[in-house]
Amino acid sequence: MQVRMVWRQWLTRHDRVRDVLPAVPLVVVAAAATAVGTSDWHEPRWDETAWTALSCLPLAVRSRWPLWVALFTLAGDLTLMAFATHSSLAPASSLVALYTLAVLGSRRSAWAVGAAAAVAITGVYAATHVESLVGGSSLLRFDFAIAATALGRAVRSRRDNLVKARERAVRAERTQEEEARRRVTEERVRIARDLHDVVAHHITLVNAQAGVAHHLMRANPDQAYEALAHIKETSRAALDELRATVGLLRQPDDAPGSRAPIPRLADLDALAGGFRASGLSVRVARTGAPVPLAPATELTAYRIIQEALTNTRKHASATRTEVILDYGPNSLRVTVTDDGPPGAPKGAGTGQGLIGMRERADAIGGRVTARPQPEGGFQVVAELPISLGPPPTDTL
Q1: CA 309 to each of CA 214, 237, 313, 379: distance values in angstroms, whole numbers, following the listed order
Q2: Do 11 and 18 meet the contact criterion of CB atoms below 8 Å apart?
Q3: Which has the closest alpha carbon to 228: 262, 205, 250, 249?
Q4: Residue-wise pLDDT tens digits, 373-383
Q5: Which of 152, 173, 194 is the last residue before a domain boundary?
Q6: 214: part of which helix (H) or strand (E)?
Q7: Tally of CB atoms within 10 A around 369
Q8: Which one of 47, 145, 168, 395 is most buried, counting C-beta atoms within 10 A?
Q9: In the chain, how many domains are there?
Q10: Is the entire prediction scored with pTM above 0.85?
């Protein structure tokens, strides 16, 4: 096998030798055929052998000019058939040239030249050997020419199919790599968004509750002790969520027990309670007829509310915040409004928090707007789809 590979590589580098290589057995066979008599062997007819060798010379450039080589070899073989009427050799050099033209040339030129060569070879042989055009020997030469062309086209088709298969494999591998990179990027952004939400929310509450405890430590130790207890609970919740989020990076798969419970809108009361303990009054109201939400919609709504309350506690000098969940027929409208003073340093559209809100909403086909109110305060409005499936269609 190794010798075969080395031989193929050597022939690939020496194309002229590769092209002329079929001429060697053709000349040897031609010399042997002319030495065969009806009853015994005799000296080969060297004139026919030389003419056969001469007609094979154009094969040395058959891969460079396949059409011209086919025409020249055909002319040489027809001449040999016309003058050597006693020869029964098939036009071998022409067959090699027709095969090469079929492999390297276009389909139209290959079949046009192949059909013309088959007719010409059959006609000249029938005329010089006084045979019928439909005789066995004449039809055999016709079949040889057609078979050489058909074999060349079959090899060409196989090579083209292999090239296309390789291209498809390369394209599929490239697409798979791009898809993998895209998924990795999306997962990285999602984890970064979750980490931001968890850290910003809990650290903000811990900071606010620590400020309350510091303020009340001497004046009211009991309330300060209560604030410290809230700090302990909040920090423990932060550690649990961080452990669950970072633990996703170490999970080999998404087994049912590999994820922590996903926050839901039913947990809003506990979320609001944490902010109330830090000194921010939070009111949660629901309007419309509550309907089951897609899990992604429920998680997105929860995270948007969490981030909006965190921003209010961090950036706005607000004392009261209102959260309204308005259930519509096809969408959930989430509104978070605080009573901060006009011109509070809570910019709209800047910071990772607001960017994360918009990314979450965009991921499920929703949208988020955040803007300061003319009379003071800041408002975040999110429009989220109830279901992530295609909308229902009316059928008759």
Answers
A1: 22, 17, 6, 11
A2: yes
A3: 205
A4: 888 888 999 99
A5: 173
A6: helix 136-216
A7: 14
A8: 145
A9: 2
A10: no
* Mean pLDDT over the full length of the chain: 76
Of 281, 284, 279, the closest CA to residue 265 belongs to 284
Q: Write out the E strands in the chain.
A: 281-288, 320-327, 331-338, 367-372, 378-385
Is 249 within the bounds of a domain? Answer: no
Query: Between the CA of residue 350 and those of 345, 358, 365, what are the distances in Å?
Result: 11, 11, 21
Tokens of 118: 């088959």
Count the Cβ atoms, other than its own, within 10 Å of residue 209.
24
Is residue 251 pLDDT above 60, yes or no? Answer: no
| Count of C-beta atoms within a 10 Å radius of residue 385 | 19
d(CA 342, CA 319): 14
Q: 109 is written with which tokens? A: 């030129």
Joined together, the tokens standing for residue 262 give 């996903």
Q: What is the pLDDT of residues 130-141, one digit of tens each?
A: 677 666 677 777
Tokens of 215: 């303020």
Q: Which of 124, 153, 173 is the endpoint of a domain?
A: 173
Residue 16 and residue 154 in one domain: yes
Read off the tokens for 234: 């909040």
295 within some domain: yes
Please report which confidence band the pLDDT of residue 347 belongs to, taking 50, 70 and 90 as the band edges.
very low
Q: Which domain holds residue 34?
A: 2-173
